[in-house]
Fold this sequence. Notes:
Elements: H1 9-16, E1 21-25, H2 32-40, E2 45-48, H3 52-60, H4 62-68, E3 73-76, H5 85-94, E4 102-106, H6 109-120, E5 124-128, H7 134-137, H8 161-170, H9 174-178, H10 184-200, H11 209-221, H12 229-236, H13 240-252, E6 256-261, E7 275-278, H14 281-287, H15 293-298, H16 302-319, E8 327-331, E9 337-344, E10 347-353, H17 365-374, E11 381-385, E12 391-394, E13 397-401
Helix pairs in contact: 3-4, 5-6, 8-14, 12-13
Amino acid sequence: MPYIPRALEPILQTAAAQFPALVLTGPRQSGKTTLLKHLFGAPSGYVSLEPPDVRAAAAADPRGFLRIHPPPVIFDEVQYAPDLLPYIKESIDERRNMYGQFFLTGSQNLLLAEQVTESLAGRVAMLRLLPVSQREEFGRPLDPLPWERSKAHPAVHRLAPRDLWRSFLRGGYPELVAGPDRDFSLWHSSYVQTYLERDVRWLRQVGDLLSFQSFLRALAARSGQLLNLTDIARDLGIAVNTAKAWLSVLEATFQVIVLRPYHADIGKRLVKTPKVYFTDTGVLCYLTGLKDPDHAAAGPLGGPIFETAVLLQIVKAFVNRGEEPRLHFWRTSAGAEVDLVVETRGKLIPIEAKLSSTPRPAMANGIRAFQQDLGDKTGPGFVIHPGEIRLPLAPNVVALPFVEL
Length: 405
């Protein structure tokens, strides 16, 4: 499989030169191990801690295990051997001022973050890798975001509408991006099953995998909508607290992003319910039973899928340069709304995702209302659409093609 250069590479190299240990988290199959091997594999050993016998060896004699696998070394899926972390700290402290000793990966953020913070505080850089962005896919991984550009940024590639929707069905996992002839649906079926059997089964909050899988599909059907866990719990016959715990599992394993509303003291009644998005459009389409680009584009989930794709490109742009995105949506009880609000550089950037390839001024109404209410706090607004037209829609609001995002 050809290697896809990732935007995170320079950040990882800088971190390895400044910290003894580095933790790279992200969803299963997002390319964490491939990236670390590409950057650090020649001088480093490699050990996967997922097999039970390897895990048992690490638990039985952690010091002996580290002697057999001395630094520099890549330890894959380190959440399976959390008791190894204090001994990694011990090893680091024996080699003071030596950087780039341990490279750790994990696909379960919540537990791993707690374990690393307790054991390796001050000795570790924590970064995240998400599936491939369109910037990375088309060889421009470090391109600035639209509001960061000093001038118009022409698209360096074109995608016919069907090809664009085919890319949404495919998603961004490296195996599929690098192997476009793969059967997307079959791959995602295997991915979801592997995720359920390896990541979810391992977490104590989930006892019934079939019910959890139904919860996963119910959540996918509501992607981009205001999230009512009470309704989902009632439909599935589970407790609301169970639904909350399962949502936390999906967040901790990087399968969903929970987007919370932006609140400001502007004297308006604002919606307080969050929205949920999947971290990969391909998984989202698979869970909702979509296999054909035309059906995906024209069906009732066309809008949520496109909105998810817009959100993910922005999230990946921030995460892939080592930054934590500060993202919200905005909606008043009177119905004014903006799909995405990006807090960056002291400004609020309003963004709308519109399914029509023919941008019209009315598409900017929500952004204009937001700019009027928030005043000087706001920056330029953008309406992102699947077509090819770049067009001003209102003062300080521009329509941009998705490929220019």
